[in-house]
Design goal:
single chain, mainly beta, Neuraminidase, 4-stranded antiparallel β-sheet, 3 helices, 24 strands
Length: 362
């Protein structure tokens, strides 16, 4: 990461820390009813996944060598729904045979009350789905067992009920959007997320404080040629990053990845075919694309626009990629756990047997 990017990120971290510290009394006073109910019932802890079937995965192999030609259609991978809780409740975590997350900043949520991080499983006391982190890594955001949006400290304490999902809506994949105040931007501390309202997918934005009211995320293109503009429905899987609040997201209907910029003006455009995008602080993107019947992980450079298949020999579906904030490492989900790979190519390494959604903290 460049020195300039590090300065921008440091400013964003300081800004969100100041906001959360200033509202500490409000946040710690909240005690969502969902917590008590979930804590009583208990949900299963992360467990070691079963071995893939003969038709399933071999471990991802090195990116050396050519890859098959990507298909034009977008990947038929999961489209942003949260992981379902395990069927058998448990009040104690089952230790995974492999957990190499210690010191990496990598976390894994899988729809249970346990989050894998820093070499252990942390009990959040409530169902945790689609976990994401504030830029400073001091606060988590997730969808709870009742489908509502919550935040908490990294150990699951001091939970805050941000907003309740209306009846008939399913919320998923929140992401933190923090911007630094300057002469153009007054500064924001929001959460973006996907809302599935009776099979209509839209993106929402909500201030990251207790009792906030979500609103539709505005999507406008700067195209002045009379084109159709960016689609307003079918959008999902948002991922915000950087000090100016840029975000990437996917559209289920046209199979494209979009970028959204609202720093100097509200702007948006499609950038490539794919799904489940994520970006680093510099703007490089990772995403999923179908190749010869399997979902592969691709990386796209913000400068050259060149795309690289990071899993060219995939024999199973690899999904839900995420970039570390410094842009060096990509983590992704496989049928038998979580893998990491250098963002510029290399040999994927398995880091956990827990199958879930990877995220990088801070």
């Amino acid at each position: 990461m460049s020195a300039r990017a590090r300065l921008r990120r440091s400013a964003a971290v300081a800004f969100v820390s100041a906001i959360t510290a200033g509202s500490a009394l409000l946040l710690t006073a909240c005690d969502p009813s969902a917590d008590a109910a979930d804590a009583k019932s208990g949900t299963a802890a992360p467990t070691r996944s079963t071995s893939p079937s003969a038709a399933g995965s071999a471990s991802p192999s090195s990116s050396a060598g050519g890859s098959a030609t990507p298909s034009a259609a977008a990947s038929t991978t999961p489209t942003g729904s949260a992981s379902a809780p395990a069927a058998t409740p448990s009040t104690t975590p089952t230790k995974a045979a492999l957990n190499l997350t210690k010191g990496t900043g990598l976390t894994i949520s899988n729809g249970t009350r346990y989050v894998v991080m820093d070499g252990k499983a942390v009990d959040f006391g409530t169902v945790v789905r689609d976990l994401t982190w504030s830029p400073d890594g001091k606060h988590a955001a997730f969808v709870d067992g009742n489908g509502n949006l919550q935040t908490s400290d990294p150990d699951g304490s001091h939970k805050v009920l941000i907003a309740k999902a209306p009846s008939g809506q399913t919320w998923s994949h929140p992401t933190w959007q923090v911007t630094v105040p300057d002469s153009i931007d007054p500064g924001r501390n929001n959460l973006l997320l996907t809302a599935d309202d009776h099979d209509t997918l839209r993106l929402l934005t909500v201030p990251a404080h207790a009792g906030a009211t979500p609103a539709a995320l505005r999507l406008i293109t700067s195209d002045i040629d009379g084109g159709p503009g960016v689609p307003q429905a079918g959008n999902l899987w948002p991922n915000a990053t950087g000090s100016h609040g840029s975000a990437v997201y996917a559209n289920k209907d046209d199979g494209q990845v979009y970028i959204r910029d609202e720093y100097t003006r509200l702007d948006g455009a499609a950038v490539t075919k794919g799904s489940q995008p994520a970006a680093d602080d510099e703007g490089d993107i990772v995403f999923v694309r179908s190749v010869d019947g399997h979902s592969h992980i691709f990386e796209r450079s913000v400068d050259s626009h060149q795309e690289r298949d990071l899993t060219p020999r995939a024999s199973a579906d690899y999904t839900e990629p995420v970039l570390s904030h410094d842009g060096r490492t990509v983590a992704f989900r496989s049928p038998d756990g979580i893998y990491t790979v250098p963002a510029k190519g290399g040999t994927p390494q398995k880091v956990s047997d827990t199958v879930g959604l990877p995220a990088f903290r801070g």
